[in-house]
Design goal:
Layout (H helix, E strand, L loop, with lengths): L1 E5 L3 E5 L4 E6 L5 E5 L3 E6 L5 E2 L5 E5 L17 E6 L3 E2 L4 E3 L4 E12 L6 E8 L2 E2 L3 E4 L6 E11 L4 E9 L5 E2 L7 E6 L2
Antiparallel strand pairs: 1-2, 2-3, 3-4, 4-5, 5-6, 7-8, 7-18, 9-10, 10-16, 11-15, 11-17, 11-18, 12-13, 12-14, 12-16
Amino acid sequence: MAVKIYGSNRIDLDGNNETFSIRATADDELNFYKGESTKLMGIDASGFESKPNIPFCSAYFSAHINYNDSKDPIIFDIVRYNNGNHYNNTTGYFTAPIDGYYLLNSWVMLMGESTFNYIFLAPKVNGGNTFEFMVQKPKGNYDTFGGSLIRKLVAGDTLSVTVFGSSWDAGYIRGGNAMNLFECYLIG
């Protein structure tokens, strides 16, 4: 590894395949780069961090979905954001690119004359249930439910969401961007 120092505001570290640099700016920011222009991280004089490459996604499904006690992942087909392309909008899976703690937010709206005792929105890691957000005996046709969850994932783990019910009879989940969502973020 070679180290090069350029004045008082830049240090380059040359590895076997990549060059990394630490640069101070005139605005009192400290930035970390891969190569000449790929910013990995920055810290300003107040200690605030910017991390433009954090894995995250935000998606919703466009059409109403008719679920009759399905255990398949919900396909959130319309992607708002997919930093790093870790969410697959054809399978409904977010794949963790690195080990860490991930925040999942997920919500859906029930519609129609659904008759059931309970309905669950179930986040799944690698296809297995991790936790369930539950609604019991909804009062009307437009019941929104969901929640947030923090889970430790290892690189390659998949995260998805499914809906299933107890004595599910009829009805559907409303599509549209204000009615449902799937969001996943690496938080640490």
